[in-house]
């Protein structure tokens, strides 16, 4: 990992920056998935460490939806964020020169992937997607990889039409992963799709992911839920930085996050949404397939 990180930092140092003026501030975007205050709390330690490392004021921004973070990066008002793979795909397809992926979260087994997980209430007699016929399925956000893109591709291939009224009675967007979990718990939707690493125990919400965060927050008892669907492995989304940032700023911030697991394990837990093996270098090529999938889905919608 040290060798790979050294190579990543060397590439960042050698990459021409579009704006070399010293920065006066640094803004970090945090994707939706849980309420804004919890997102701020989970990432406050990273904000403080970044402020120390960069020597300028650092602020956290928690837009209401995924697109708020994506647009902030594209518009230059945000300097860094951990995006989902689909979110990165949208940013890249909109402007290939806006951001660059530098690191990716790893699981305890060293892998850098996770799963889209379908859930339902145990007492609603729903054991699989076969039992969801004529019922309401909830998704988090149209720009979520696990909360929409991957299920939207995989479910129709398995015979479950995504057109409201054809198989599912309706498709609803809840606004985020936490909102989906709460909607299932409260019976506002019959089933929902969220994300988890798929490692560890179901009753803990697995080791990391939206379910784990919901359990930690006391929002749900996993014994009241059942898993009704699981996707193929999905690549973890990248930590991206704005390409126009000075090279030394990108190097310092990347090194900070790469070393976070050793510096402050509790902080890394919050930033990574649960147990993690740390962050390792990643490059654009890791998301080529997701970018192509997103491009095709957008073309389908356009037609």
Structure overview:
The chain has 303 residues and is of the alpha/beta class. The chain has two domains: 2-110 and 237-302, D-Maltodextrin-Binding Protein, domain 2, CATH 3.40.190.10; 113-234, 3-Layer(aba) Sandwich (D-Maltodextrin-Binding Protein, domain 2), CATH 3.40.190. Helices cover 40% and strands 19% of the residues. It has helices at residues 2-14, 36-54, 66-75, 85-94, 145-157, 177-186, 210-216, 247-258, 260-263, 265-271, 288-302, and strands at residues 26-29, 58-61, 80-82, 99-106, 113-121, 136-139, 170-173, 191-196, 225-230, 234-235, 238-242, 278-281. The chain has a six-stranded mixed sheet, sandwiched between helices. Strands 5, 6, 7, 8, 9 and 10 form a six-stranded mixed sheet that branches. Strand 1, helix 2 and strand 2 form a beta-alpha-beta unit. Helix 1 runs antiparallel to helix 8 (247-258), helix 2 packs across helix 10 and helix 4 (85-94) packs across helix 11.
Largest sheet at a glance? 6 strands, mixed
The secondary-structure element order is: HEHEHEHEEEHEHEHEEEHHHEH
- Strand content is 15-25%
CATH homologous superfamily name of the largest domain? Answer: Periplasmic binding protein-like II
What class, by secondary structure content? alpha/beta
| CATH architecture title of the largest domain | 3-Layer(aba) Sandwich
Tally of strands: 12
Number of helices: 11
**Biggest sheet: strand arrangement:** 2-1-3-11-4-12
The total domain count is 2
Measured between the Cα atoms of the first and last residue, the distance is: 44 Å
Query: Which geometry do the CA atoms define?
Result: globular
What is the averaged pLDDT score?
93
| CATH domain fold name of the largest domain | D-Maltodextrin-Binding Protein, domain 2
pLDDT under 50 segments (min length 5)? Answer: 15-19
Keywords: Signal
Signal peptide: 1-19
Protein name: Phosphonate ABC transporter substrate-binding protein
Pfam family, one: Phosphonate-bd
